[in-house]
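Before the break, one more example. Copy the sequence into your notebook; we will annotate it together after we see the structure.
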Amino acid sequence: MKVMILCGKYGMGHFNAAVAIKEQLEKDLDNVDVQIEDFIAFAFPGIHKIMYQGFHFFTTKTPKFFSKAYKQVASNEHNPIYSQIMLLQLVRFLKNHNPDVIVCTLPEIARIVSLYKKKYKSNIPLITSITDITTFYEWINYGSDLYLAPTNSVRKFLLQYGIKDETIMISGIPVKQKFHYLEKVKTDKKQLLIMGGGLGNIPLDYEFYDLMSKHSDIEVNVLCAKNVELYQYLLNRYANIFPVSYCNNVDEYMAKADLVITKTGGITTFECIYSKLPVLTYIPFLPQEKRNAEFLEKKKLGKIMWDNDKNPYQLVISILNSDEIDEMTLNMEYIKNQFDLSYSFRIQELYKKGKK
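Here is what the structure looks like once it is written out:
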């Protein structure tokens, strides 16, 4: 069985979900060939980098503007010219690769595959993996044979648009296998982890670090990634605060952390759930991050820095010194145990059914 996972790199969340699905399929199934393709790069070879750069600029520099524009775009059908270009490129792509199953982690690609199935009367199985806790119409397509929904609220949203219940699995957002088997590590100090994604976008005031440095019983790890300025500022400045440049072992830092300060991207949110790591998040502006943060707050898995997201010192100390940490950790364990990770076998069934 040849499985093609189509994604894009508007941020790394969609790509990381694709990697996680690939790992799950290869773990569960024999004789499976899984490939990942950045289909946006394939469809727009001359301008995809500009498209990604534009996305990054608007989401980081003008998040409020992007939020308004995104809500409007995500609530409507695609631009017909854009869709036609994507469709023509998909036809060319499928002729070259001839997959047995298609998995999509980006909504606009899933829609194009659905359009392809309808226009060319194809029965190729389409799996749509939803990578945010969303209620946006962009994820709706009627050619999907299976939806991987992150939560029951997303399942209810799909049902409202006529998606059949038997085609929905509540799988959480797929995360890499190393988070599935992560064991918590206890240390003699309380552990605070601060993350800023691949770009190290951490909007905390430097005063916050000054205040945290006075607590010798708290160790702070700051994953600076590409934020060289912050890394150099923190390096060797405080005895209990440790900046880290780009790393591939985020899971190890999550394993020993008691609390994480981070933005609530879809993948990060579910990596924290798998790690049973309570979350403290900045006030979210982007629609996707807002719904993820609201989910964490509603389910008592984390908190939002409503009062001060530049210097949450008082809130951090309050959480670390309370029983809330234990409550949030138990709630994350409960949520995690509800995920159905048997989707590999459902995909295999769809493949066999299509071959008959």
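The two ends are 14 Å apart (CA to CA). The mean pLDDT is 90. Try to locate both features in your own notes.
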